[in-house]
Design brief:
This protein is an alpha/beta fold. The chain is 33% helix and 23% strand. It binds cytidine-5'-triphosphate. Residues 216, 235, 237, 239, 241, 268, 270-272, 288-291 line the site of cytidine-5'-triphosphate (CTP).
């Protein structure tokens, strides 16, 4: 339902052509269908995007002079606003009071993004990215709370590379999918999210601060920086356990006698262990990942319990990688071990579903 003013930006013909549905703006069009009551009553979610300062004001005061504002009054479902306006209008006391009023009544008002606005200025007030609005809408429909609002969470993703020479490196198969899914889920739950991404070639999740790194040492530095004010840290990345003792500036050549070069390795620091050691009291909540296989000595869970104790983190997400599972796949199945002795079995599901289960466990342990 466009408002009259919004048709100055995108006109009726465009809406009708793209949606294949007639566009109605006023209360007195097609009165026989009583649209001003029916639409609100039958909706599962009403999303106003972009929500102008004017619409927020009308909604806060219960004004109903067009189809949209009538619908807002008749809706019995969740109502969500994605504001877009100039910084001055957003910060104006009147707008802030209206936002307060709407939130106090249970409406969801997303924070506007920071960036280029209409005209040459930049600042807070930009419409949140469509993917972010969509994720927030899905969460509302799934009954998800914004239980990470006001929190800063830091996630590492991908696999580090340790270069031998300018063209060759030691690496691993981690795609970064689980780390990015965790970031997306945290954004949808209202968190400020920093992802330290090691060689991830996936599309950047909306609303996330992504810091790109290549080597384990750089991942380590960036994780320590980001963790300073974090409420939760998740080490979903696969840092290389070893790096060559030296980096050769020029490409290593084959020799005439066919003798292969020896590569000497040194162990990398364990970032997870360092983050646990660096934290003050119980904050942040720290989550590790473990890829395990059972063997003659112990089961997957026994190995994982020992690893949890060694690492000292609060939670360990355990993947059984025996049969080439997990790497690069869209879905994931895991067991979550808590330092408090808990064990939760997560069924096979999308990496997004697993992410939400991990955040559920983190939220329980915050504060
Ligand atoms: N990790 C880390 N720094 C490293 C290596 C791993 O922070 N240098 C983190 C990973 O991000 C992950 C967890 O530690 O959260 C995995 O532990 P790790 O000991 O690397 O597991 P495996 O590779 O399975 O190790 P192992 O061969 O000892 O079983």
């Amino acid at each position: 339902m466009p408002t009259e003013s919004s048709l100055n930006f995108v006109g009726t013909a465009t809406w009708e052509a793209l949606s294949g549905k007639p566009v109605q703006v006023g209360v007195f069009d097609n009165v026989d269908q009583v649209a001003h009551v029916r639409i609100g009553q039958s909706a599962d979610l009403v999303l106003v995007a972009p929500a102008t300062a004017n619409v927020l004001a009308k909604a806060a005061h219960g004004l109903a002079d067009d189809l949209l504002t009538n619908t807002l009054l008749t809706a019995r479902c969740p109502v969500m606003f994605a504001p877009a306006m100039h910084t001055e209008m957003w910060e104006n006391h009147a707008t802030q009071a209206n936002v307060e009023t709407l939130r106090s009544r249970g409406c969801i008002v997303l924070e506007p993004a920071v960036g280029r606005l209409t005209g040459v200025d930049t600042g807070k007030g930009r419409l949140p990215a469509p993917a972010e609005i969509y994720a927030a809408a899905i969460n509302v429909l799934e009954g998800r709370e914004r239980d990470l609002a006001g929190r800063h969470v830091v996630v590492s993703a991908g696999g580090t590379r340790e270069y031998l020479d300018p063209v060759r490196y030691l690496g691993n198969r981690s795609s970064g999918r689980q780390g990015f899914a965790l970031a997306e889920a945290a954004v949808a739950r209202g968190a400020r999210v920093t992802v330290v991404a090691a060689n991830v070639s996936l599309a950047r999740p909306a609303g996330v601060d992504v810091v790109d790194v290549v080597s384990t040492e750089k991942l380590r530095q960036q994780m320590h920086l980001a963790a300073v004010d974090a409420d939760a840290v998740v080490m979903a990345a696969a840092p290389a356990d070893f790096r060559p003792t030296e980096f050769v500036d020029a490409k290593i050549k084959k020799t005439a006698d066919g003798v292969a070069p020896q590569i000497h390795l040194v162990e990398n620091p364990d970032i997870l262990v360092e983050l646990v050691a660096a934290r003050t009291s119980r904050s942040p909540v720290i989550v590790g990942f473990a890829a395990e296989t059972g063997d003659a000595h112990a089961t997957v869970i026994e190995h994982a319990r020992a690893k949890l104790a060694r690492k000292g983190c609060d939670l360990l997400v355990v993947n059984d990688v025996s049969a080439g599972k997990v790497f690069g796949r869209e879905d994931n199945e895991a067991v979550l071990l808590g330092a408090d002795g808990t064990l939760e079995q997560f069924p096979l599901g999308s990496k997004s579903a697993l992410s939400h289960l991990i955040w559920d466990a983190v939220v329980q342990r915050l504060d």
